[in-house]
């Protein structure tokens, strides 16, 4: 890895890694970090080019973020973990699972998508327009180039097929809001394509971990089935 990911770590027990969404940072999960650190050793990461993690050189993509996660786990001697991803974090988690499912005990995907057309048009269309606009200035302005990269993650990625998901055999919780910006049918497709997945919809919008933290945490806790003898 050409950079070191910034992260916060709290608690003891079996590792739980939290991956935030597009344009956010590890602070997004403040209510999850506080809650789950009572049961687990929680790592909340800043994705490359987000928060306090450097951008580094080269490719800026979901696939590379998944490679960064592998490097992070290797460097911190985390052989296996539960991984919780929100939005783009869910997409990173899925990409990681396609490459390294043996390093995942359980997977939680909140508000993720496997292709850009999984996002409702009322949200996606302005993102596409903003992306085209900032790209016009990207060659001359660093701020525009950085914004174009962030928006590009939502316009051009992810690119995962339902067939690929069939290889992700780890137990998975797929969760989304009843009024999510991800299409309901798309969320259902993800859950149906994963061999060992549970599907849950929680009342609310896209940002469940922040806006519906109590209900979201309860759903995750039930899925992980915390047991004293499972902590290590």
Textual characterization of the structure:
This protein is an alpha/beta fold and about 230 residues long. The protein has 2 domains: about 5-115 and about 160-230, 3-Layer(aba) Sandwich (Rossmann fold), CATH 3.40.50; about 115-155, no CATH class. It has 9 helices and 7 strands. It has helices at about 30-35, 60-75, 90-100, 120-135, 140-155, 160-165, 185-195, 210, 215-225; strands spanning about 5-10, 15-20, 40-45, 80-85, 105-110, 170-175, 195-200. Strands 1-3-2-4-5-6-7 form a 7-stranded mixed beta sheet, sandwiched between helices. The longest helix has 15 residues, at about 120-135. Mean pLDDT is about 95; it is low at about 225-230.
Task: Summarize the structure in short.
By secondary structure, the chain is an alpha/beta fold. It has nine helices and seven strands.
Task: List key phrases describing it.
alpha/beta; seven-stranded mixed β-sheet; 41% helix; globular; 232 residues; Rossmann fold; disordered C terminus; 2 domains
């Amino acid at each position: 890895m050409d950079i070191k990911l910034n992260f916060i770590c709290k608690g003891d027990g079996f590792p739980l890694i939290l991956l935030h969404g597009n344009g956010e940072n590890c602070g997004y999960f403040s209510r999850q970090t506080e809650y789950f650190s009572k049961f687990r050793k929680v790592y909340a990461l800043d994705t490359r080019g987000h928060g306090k993690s450097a951008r580094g050189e080269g490719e800026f993509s979901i696939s590379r973020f998944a490679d960064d996660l592998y490097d992070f786990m290797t460097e911190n001697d985390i052989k296996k973990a539960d991984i919780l991803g929100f939005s783009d974090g869910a997409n990173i988690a899925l990409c990681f699972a396609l490459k390294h499912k043996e390093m995942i005990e359980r997977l939680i995907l909140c508000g993720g998508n496997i292709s850009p057309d999984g996002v409702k048009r009322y949200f996606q269309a302005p993102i596409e327009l903003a992306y085209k606009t900032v790209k016009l200035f990207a060659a001359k302005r660093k701020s525009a180039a950085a914004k174009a990269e962030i928006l590009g993650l939502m316009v051009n990625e992810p690119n995962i097929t339902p067939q690929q998901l069939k290889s992700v055999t780890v137990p998975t919780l797929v969760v989304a809001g009843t009024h999510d910006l991800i299409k309901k049918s798309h969320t259902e497709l993800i859950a149906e394509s994963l061999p060992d997945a549970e599907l849950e919809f929680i009342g609310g919008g896209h940002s469940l971990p922040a806006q519906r933290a109590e209900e979201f945490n309860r759903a995750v806790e039930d899925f992980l089935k915390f047991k004293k003898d499972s902590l290590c």
